[in-house]
Structure formats: structure tokens, C-alpha cells
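Design request, C-alpha cells follow.
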């Protein structure tokens, strides 16, 4: 697959060949769905907690005598059936993570890249460099028509570019090792630098 390469000012900078085994797959929704669920589950804090019968603050005095009332033989107001009693089998802190094999995670990233390429939402730029001026970069981004874009650079993001992009709404910047399925799919446009293409192809082959 061959795509045109542009500069941030919109001028042409040649073209680049993209490997079909990474950018030319037929995207599968089931694989992408499992990857997004895996990522979101890892990010879930799992700190939800309720008070059980042994944890609620309430009197421990026996409510009424054991026999002769004609009622149930209750011994504590902390029982779950009473108002202000403990919660039975409520949520407790836990990890929501589940496993996915490295092979599957690599496949998921390939399908995410292929999905953007097939949708025509993949843009290749020569490099992501700026002098740190947000106003200049914002004008360039607006002229290119990027409203919700993810820019992936090489091994490290240019410091000036990261500083300039920090205050632009809808623009995310990541190094190539930070490329992930969720961030790729949640943005309308995926922008890769030439060094990012090389790094991703080396990582996914």
C-alpha cells in the first residue's frame, strides 16, 4: 500500500510504502472489541466498596427476647434485612484485569491501524516538529482539517511539538511505543510520522 507523505504546512513530501500485513488487513470488529474491553478493564480502578454486616456502625444489643414474641429470632440490627444494616454480597475492591496473549494484542493493533487506513483516516507526515508555539501549530492543524486527531511519533516525541500540542483541544500526541487500540479508535484521524511507521512495522512484524 502506498500513501502520500505531507508536511505540517500541507505541502507534499513524497510517498511511503506501507506493509499490507499491518495496514492492509480486513478489520474485524470482534478483535477490536476485545482489545478495547481489555484496555478499559485494566484502567478500571475497582475501588468500589460497601459495608458488610461486620462493618456497619450500629448497636450490637439483642433487639428483643429470643422467645415469646411471635417474630423471627433476630439478634442484631446489623442484619442485611434491616434498614441501615450491612449489605449482603456487595462489591468489594478487586482488579478487573483479564489476560490477552501478546500475539492477540499485536493482532489487535494491526487491525486498528488497518481500520484507519481502510476508512481513509490515516495520514502520514514527514515529521512532527515545532518551535513550541501553540498558535502556529493550531493554524496548521485547522488548515489540514484535523479536528480529533492522534499523532504518533517515533521513539520519542519532539519536545517543542509536545509543548505546542498540549493546549490544542482534540489533539493527542504519543510515542510509537504508546500506540494502542483504544486511543487510535477514539480519534477521527490517525497521523503517523515516517519514523512512527518504521517503528510500528518493526514492532509488529
Amino acid at each position: 500500500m502506498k500513501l502520500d507523505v505531507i508536511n505540517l504546512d500541507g505541502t507534499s513530501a513524497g510517498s511511503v510504502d506501507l506493509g499490507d500485513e499491518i495496514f492492509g488487513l480486513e478489520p474485524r470488529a470482534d478483535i477490536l472489541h476485545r482489545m478495547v474491553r481489555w484496555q478499559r478493564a485494566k484502567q478500571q480502578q475497582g475501588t468500589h466498596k460497601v459495608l458488610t454486616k461486620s462493618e456497619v456502625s450500629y448497636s450490637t444489643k439483642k433487639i428483643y427476647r429470643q422467645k415469646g414474641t411471635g417474630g423471627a429470632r433476630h439478634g442484631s440490627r446489623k442484619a442485611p434485612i434491616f434498614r441501615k444494616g450491612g449489605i449482603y454480597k456487595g462489591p468489594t475492591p478487586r482488579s478487573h484485569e483479564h489476560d490477552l496473549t501478546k500475539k492477540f494484542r499485536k493482532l489487535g493493533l494491526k487491525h486498528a491501524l488497518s481500520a484507519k487506513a481502510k476508512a481513509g483516516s490515516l495520514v502520514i507526515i514527514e515529521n512532527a516538529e515545532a518551535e513550541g508555539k501553540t498558535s502556529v501549530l493550531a493554524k496548521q492543524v485547522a488548515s489540514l482539517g484535523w479536528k480529533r486527531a492522534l499523532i504518533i511519533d517515533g521513539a520519542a516525541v519532539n519536545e517543542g511539538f509536545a509543548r505546542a500540542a498540549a493546549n490544542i483541544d482534540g489533539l493527542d500526541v504519543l510515542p510509537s511505543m504508546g500506540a494502542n487500540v483504544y486511543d487510535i479508535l477514539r480519534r477521527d484521524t490517525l497521523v503517523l510520522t515516517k519514523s512512527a511507521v518504521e517503528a510500528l512495522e518493526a514492532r509488529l512484524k
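Comment from the thread starter after seeing the answer: thanks! Residues 102-118 form the longest helix (17 residues).
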